[in-house]
From TrEMBL:
<dbReference type="InterPro" id="IPR013815">
    <property type="entry name" value="ATP_grasp_subdomain_1"/>
</dbReference>
<dbReference type="GO" id="GO:0046872">
    <property type="term" value="F:metal ion binding"/>
</dbReference>
<dbReference type="InterPro" id="IPR005875">
    <property type="entry name" value="PurK"/>
</dbReference>
<comment type="subunit">
    <text>Homodimer.</text>
</comment>
<feature type="domain" description="ATP-grasp">
    <location>
        <begin position="106"/>
        <end position="292"/>
    </location>
</feature>
<comment type="pathway">
    <text>Purine metabolism; IMP biosynthesis via de novo pathway; 5-amino-1-(5-phospho-D-ribosyl)imidazole-4-carboxylate from 5-amino-1-(5-phospho-D-ribosyl)imidazole (N5-CAIR route): step 1/2.</text>
</comment>
<dbReference type="InterPro" id="IPR016185">
    <property type="entry name" value="PreATP-grasp_dom_sf"/>
</dbReference>
<keyword id="KW-0067">ATP-binding</keyword>
<keyword id="KW-0658">Purine biosynthesis</keyword>
<comment type="similarity">
    <text>Belongs to the PurK/PurT family.</text>
</comment>
<keyword id="KW-0547">Nucleotide-binding</keyword>
<comment type="function">
    <text>Catalyzes the ATP-dependent conversion of 5-aminoimidazole ribonucleotide (AIR) and HCO(3)(-) to N5-carboxyaminoimidazole ribonucleotide (N5-CAIR).</text>
</comment>
<feature type="binding site">
    <location>
        <begin position="262"/>
        <end position="263"/>
    </location>
    <ligand>
        <name>ATP</name>
    </ligand>
</feature>
<comment type="function">
    <text>Catalyzes the ATP-dependent conversion of 5-aminoimidazole ribonucleotide (AIR) and HCO(3)- to N5-carboxyaminoimidazole ribonucleotide (N5-CAIR).</text>
</comment>
<dbReference type="InterPro" id="IPR011761">
    <property type="entry name" value="ATP-grasp"/>
</dbReference>
<dbReference type="Pfam" id="PF17769">
    <property type="entry name" value="PurK_C"/>
</dbReference>
<dbReference type="InterPro" id="IPR054350">
    <property type="entry name" value="PurT/PurK_preATP-grasp"/>
</dbReference>
Length: 366
């Protein structure tokens, strides 16, 4: 079987490394040259996401299409929907269309009965209306943006007035205003939904951020059993509502013992990287299995694991620390092969097979 993926970053790389040993051919498509996926052995097509002729040619080479990157132009996703009867596409393009539009996403959550932060869809026209959300706010671009990009914090009416002065230069800009939730923890659920509708889930992961970028993931999350089960139930209901097939990440805020659904990623997720060394099947293995039509495994029992992102900040120093930790076989290093180490850029991650209490303090310096 020939697997094709739109996107060619580190998530595609890790999918590829699971697929090739199983005898699958792996193809990636993106405008990026010398990509992490290509370096792992993926057969790369370098072309624009908006070149429908190139995409059609790419689809002719493969048996199933998936995604490792959700910021595909909406027009391209709509084009792909016309091929769903010819080339299987997992997850369905509509799940990406919803995920990349923050207003659509939050509205979908509310329709399912989930608690979210209060929100308001801001356009040049709707800016004339009164917004019944108490300050402070986060204003986000409606589409795209990640790791804190495309976001600004608004503390009061004066901040909002300043924001509006430059918000609608073109007149067609769209934003989402969100209530700032003072949460106690952020958690995520990594699940895989198979073609027969069955779902495999690892349980909640606890996540810590620095400068809006994921820093540390702790599995299992330090939360009550009841909240863990509730988060799994909510994420599963979301996956069912999207007719989802593949691995996805679902993020929650925990405040006053209530779960607020924040967002979902229609692909394997950074907070699921711990699964590569959790002494069970990884999120990438499950994704490949789901999209290729295999049945879900009967037993997935991950053990306590930590994941630490390695950024381009002081990269050589981080590498030196990581290599020193490798003397202990409980540590595993995963580098993405990116050419330039830039500040804030995810260059790799390190997993520790054990609990937070057991980890070497140097792990936190990566």
């Amino acid at each position: 079987m020939k697997i094709g993926v739109l996107g060619s970053g580190q998530l595609g790389q890790m999918m590829c490394l699971e697929a090739l040993p199983l005898g699958y051919d792996f193809y990636c498509y993106s405008p990026d040259k010398e990509s992490p996926s290509a370096k792992a052995g993926a057969l790369a097509t370098v072309a624009s996401y908006e070149s429908f002729s190139e995409i059609k040619e790419f689809l002719s080479k493969i048996n199933v299409l998936s995604f490792e990157f959700e910021n595909i132009p909406k027009t391209t996703l709509e084009y792909l929907e016309t091929f769903s009867g010819q080339t299987p596409i997992f997850p369905p393009p509509k799940s990406l269309i919803i995920a990349q539009d923050r207003a659509l996403e939050k509205t979908h959550f509310r329709k399912l009965g989930f608690r979210t932060a209060s929100f308001f869809h801001l356009t040049k026209e709707s800016a004339k209306f009164e917004i019944a959300i108490p300050y402070p706010w986060i204003i986000k671009t409606l589409r795209f943006g990640y790791d804190g990009k495309g976001q600004v914090k608004i503390g009061d009416a004066a901040d909002y007035k300043v924001f509006l002065e430059s918000a609608f230069v073109k007149g067609e800009e769209e934003y989402l205003i969100e209530e700032v939730i003072s949460f106690q923890k952020e958690i995520s659920i990594i699940l895989t939904r198979f073609q027969n509708g069955e779902i495999v889930c690892y349980g909640a992961v606890e996540n810590e951020h620095k400068n809006h970028i994921l820093d540390l993931s702790i599995y299992p999350a330090r939360i009550p059993t009841g909240l863990n089960l509730e988060a799994i139930e909510m994420a599963s209901k979301l996956a069912d509502s999207l007719d989802y097939v593949g691995t996805m990440g679902v993020e929650f805020f925990l405040k006053d013992n209530h779960l607020y659904l924040n967002e979902y990623a229609p692909r394997p997720h950074n907070t699921g990287h711990f699964t590569q060394d959790c002494q069970s099947l990884s999120q990438f293995s499950l994704h490949v299995s789901a999209i290729t039509g295999n049945l879900p495994p009967t037993d997935v029992r991950p053990k306590p694991t930590l994941m630490k992102n390695i950024l381009g900040n002081e990269f050589e120093e981080s590498l030196s620390i990581a290599r020193s930790l490798l003397k202990d076989d409980r540590y595993q290093l995963h580098l993405y092969g990116k050419k330039d180490a830039k500040i804030g850029r995810k260059m790799g991650h390190m997993n520790f097979k054990g609990s937070l209490e057991e980890v070497n303090p140097l792990f936190h310096d990566l």
